[in-house]
Amino acid sequence: MAIRVAVDAMGGDRAPAVVVEGAVQACRGADGRLHVLLFGDETEVGRELENQGVRDLPIELVHAPERIGMGESPAAAVKTKRQSSIHLGLGAHLQGAADAFVSAGNTGAVMAASLFILGRLPNVARPAVIGFFPTTRGFCIVLDIGTNVDCRPEHLVQFARMGAIYCEHVLKRPDPVVALLNIGEEPGKGNDQVKAAFDLLQREEGLNFRGNVEGRDVLQHAADVVVCDGFVGNVMLKLGESVLPVLGRLIGAEMAVLGYSDEQKGLVMNVLGRVKGRFDPDEYGGAPLLGVDGNVLIGHGGSSAKAIARMITTAAEMVEQDVRASIAQAFQARAASA
């Protein structure tokens, strides 16, 4: 049976055109494994579907008369726009008409609506969003990257547990290494929050906790799962997004000073382009929202069609591996043993 993915067709800077194109790419590469439900304005989305010529693909248009803009207040929009593409898409997931939901729209609104409509899994105090960071050995995941700017130590332990489950089930890394982001590697470093979290993580059974890592260690792949609060994680994410554009400008300026020929510049920029691909968020398929009672992925507002397609296929992988159930079982077992 095909996996049904509800897609917010109105979410993103270039919606619905880019979203529809991404959905078409995902379905064409899925060999019948996917069924996509596009939630959005039937006129706008229908026009884009006509432009793509998709009569032979398993894509269904579901009319949603309202949309939540990128700059709207998440709390206000979630309360007032009950017929939005986000609301109706998540509602379809809740009702069992869809197996997952993805959106490149207003991040705060997607998170708020997910909590309001789907709710949290039992025993999960704070859902968290995963970020993907390129490393010298592929990539690692960091959580939380912005959902929870203020955390208690026990929340960081839950992030570690959810991240490890995702890493093992979806990324296929058995017994993933977990680390706590800190200002030093030694036990006893950091503020009260991370010192207490360190002690809890050390005592957490079934978790491959290696201890503290510093920011400089993350891109060296010091761990598969790096845990921090959402304030620190979001700062890391935004800093990481700035690296390649700044590096490109600096390299271009230095090549001009050194008098490189066009051929030499081309060779250098070719290498930089290959490295840049490792930092491209389009490669990682959105950010899973772990801890809600469903399968939800959130994309960057500037997501390309390729990124939307990757989000849809990643959502299908989460459904296939039943990440939601794995997290629920792990947290139930932990609560029972407490």
Question: Could you characterize the architecture of this molecule?
Answer:
- The protein has helices at 17-28, 42-52, 74-80, 85-95, 107-117, 153-169, 192-203, 215-218, 230-258, 262-278, 305-321, 323-337, and strands at residues 3-8, 34-40, 59-63, 100-103, 128-129, 131-135, 138-143, 178-181, 209-213, 225-227, 287-290, 296-298.
- By secondary structure, it is of the alpha/beta class.
- It folds into two domains: 3-124 and 291-323, Isopropylmalate Dehydrogenase (3-Layer(aba) Sandwich); 129-278, Isopropylmalate Dehydrogenase.
- The strands form two sheets. A seven-stranded mixed β-sheet has the order 3-2-1-4-12-11-5, sandwiched between helices. The protein has a five-stranded mixed β-sheet with strand order 6-7-10-8-9, with helices on both faces.
- The longest helix is centred in the last third of the chain and has 29 residues, at 230-258.
Radius of gyration: 21 Å
Nearest-integer average pLDDT: 91
Structural class comes to: alpha/beta
Strand adjacency order, main sheet: 3-2-1-4-12-11-5
Helix content: 40-55%
Tally of DSSP helical segments: 12
Instruction: List the secondary-structure elements in sequence, H or E.
Output: EHEHEHHEHEEEHEHEHEHHEEHH
Note poorly predicted spans: none
Number of strands: 12
Count of discrete domains: 2
* SS strand fraction: 15-25%
Report the end-to-end length measured between terminal Cα atoms: 39 Å
In CATH terms, the superfamily of the largest domain is Isopropylmalate Dehydrogenase
Kindly report the CATH topology of the largest domain: Isopropylmalate Dehydrogenase
Shape: globular
User: Briefly, what CATH class of the largest domain?
Assistant: Alpha Beta
Instruction: Describe the largest sheet.
Output: 7 strands, mixed
How would you describe the oligomerization state of the chains in this entry?
A: single chain
CATH architecture of the largest domain: 3-Layer(aba) Sandwich
